[in-house]
Amino acid sequence: MEHDTVRVRIAPSPTGALHLGLARTALYNWLFARGHNGVFILRIDDTDENRNQPEMLAPILDGLRWLGLDWDEGPEKGGPHAPYFQSERREIYQQAVDRLIACGAAYRDYATTEEIAAEREQARAEGRTFRYSRRWMAETAADCARFEAEGRRPVVRLKMPDAGTLVVDDLIRGRVEFDLGLEQDHVIQRQDGSFLYHLTSAVDDALMGITHIIRAEEHLSNTPRQIFILQSLGYPLPKFAHLPYVAEPGSKNKLSKRKLKEYLKKPDFAELLARGEKIARRLGLDTSPELFNPVVIDFYQQTGFLAEALVNYLALLGWSYDDRTEFFTPVELVERFALERVVRSPASFDPNRLMAFQVHYMMALPVAERTGLVLPYLVRAGLVSEPVSPEVRQRVERIVTAAGDRIKVAGDILDYDYFFVRDEELVYDEPAVKKWLGGEQQCRMLARVRELLAGAVQFESEVLMRVLEDFARRENVKGMAVSQALRVAVTGKDYGFGIGDVLSICGKERVLARIDRVLERDRF
RNA sequence: GGCCCCAUCGUCUAGCGGUUUAGGACAUCACUCUUUCAAGGUGAAGGCACCGGUUCGACUCCGGUUGGGGCCA
């Protein structure tokens, strides 16, 4: 057993988005595989015809790739157990169902939905747990013929044992016991011939040689029937590891992208989304909540988060190495990740903590690299044209340096659009204008500062700062009054990084022009 | 309703019977620095859900209660 190659898988449905919870499950599987020299398999659960569209799969593949979770077998890669799309494996499932029927582990059932419902209702009325009576179970070809003569159509059900205990030795949860006498005869094939999840999943896991099933906790209750299928078919059992699910911000409910409205009541979550939307709108991206929200990996990719930050955060959402290490490179994660140290209780998604990781990783990058990350956003917002000239690049680098960790995600560069727009396009924050340039005196002071700056030979940050300080002292005004008046005139806002840097990066000509514009504007 | 899982600061977690006045991180608050906004520095506040056992000793083991969640209906 120990010598077998570790083989793990994730089996997402093509739903159009890579959800945070799935991303974490994928990460844990990937870490486990890489840490054991194993194989990470991607299998697509696209048995639901209605949603089976290629464009719904792309975001999931892109998201996994972006996170660095490369798969060894699966879509685009192929592999020895192809096809990896369940929609293409129907014959395999049919054979499995036939075998299950042949060995008595499953049966054709001709009951109608109404008849089953009636039985269930009766059980409830009598206060006992419902279990199907198998009254319309067909055991022979004659049975089938008879039922079909009545116009009935069969489903295939598992014929679960009447009694007994099934034990799952879960790698994370330990020993979990189930009373087989309480299990239902679940349907594994519908009337229309389509197959149900438990069947396809168990069969594929066996056929693909999966050794460890690492999946979310909600599947724990389903494990007995999958084990029953596996055993009935004569396959060896994989090991199971059921992960706690990822919960909502500030609660223990399972995270769901359908409950976005509720999450928005949480300030942290709302702030994160607002940050993303601000960026996305500038890029002309679709910000409809279905596709663009912090529950979905694509959101982070689009707004300029670093994959390392997400990976580090996700790794720690339900796992820890020790009592203090919080930063891990992917290599360290691979080395240290262990299922035994996965926590058993659900962990809620905390935007703040994620942001803290993002800032850490962002600031760890050299300025040149951060500049490289930020430039595409300027280009896509139409503020910088391609190819990017060395001058522009250097200018952006200066902004990135001056901004420091105000640029938390790459898209935040768009907050500094005032360095790129034409003077007449500059947007002024009216309250700020009113506050710092609303009065006659303030404008007169700005006019004098303008003359001072017009005479400046060197337009560098430190020099300018000294000039402004001297000016404030001489005129007996507060330094802040000077710097803020200038800031509003040049950037339109009353916040931002150091005024010396602002002026210097903006450049003398433009600074003077913008001051003139503001002074002009205020006369009316 | 039945079955299963879970339970340490607001959040993520460390803790695997005594080394613990329960440690770290994020968030929060205060002070400090600062010619704006951030950041930085210093510090504070904040938790073992409850009740029984077992034990010389329980956050740690067992049982129950409560609460939360999941699956099946």
Name given to the CATH architecture of the largest domain: 3-Layer(aba) Sandwich
Strand content: 5-15%
The largest beta-sheet arranges its strands as: 4-3-5-8
Percent helix, as a range, is 40-55%
Number of domains: 4
Mean pLDDT: 93
Report on the biggest sheet. Answer: 4 strands, antiparallel
Protein structure class: alpha/beta
Radius of gyration over C-alpha positions, nearest whole angstrom: 31 Å
Q: What is the tally of beta strands?
A: 12
Shape: elongated
Q: Give unreliable regions as ranges.
A: none
**In CATH's first tier, which class of the largest domain applies?**
Alpha Beta
Could you name the CATH homologous superfamily of the largest domain?
A: HUPs
Count of discrete alpha- or pi-helical segments spanning 4 or more residues: 21
The end-to-end span amounts to 84 Å
CATH topology of the largest domain: Rossmann fold
Keywords: Aminoacyl-tRNA synthetase, ATP-binding, Cytoplasm, Ligase, Nucleotide-binding, Protein biosynthesis
Enzyme class: ligase
Subunit structure: Monomer.
EC number: 6.1.1.17
Break the fold down into its secondary structure elements and pairings.
Layout: E1 7-10, H1 20-35, E2 39-42, H2 54-67, H3 90-102, E3 106-109, H4 113-125, E4 137-138, H5 141-149, E5 155-158, E6 165-170, E7 174-179, E8 187-189, H6 197-207, E9 212-216, H7 223-232, E10 239-243, E11 246-247, H8 260-263, H9 267-283, H10 297-303, H11 307-315, H12 330-336, E12 347-348, H13 351-364, H14 367-380, H15 390-403, H16 430-437, H17 440-454, H18 461-475, H19 479-491, H20 499-506, H21 508-522
Parallel strand pairs: 1-2, 9-10, 11-12
Antiparallel strand pairs: 3-4, 3-5, 5-8, 6-7
Helix pairs in contact: 1-12, 6-7, 9-10, 11-13, 14-15, 16-19, 17-19, 17-21, 18-20, 19-20
This protein binds one RNA strand of 73 nucleotides through β7, β12, α13, α18 and α19.
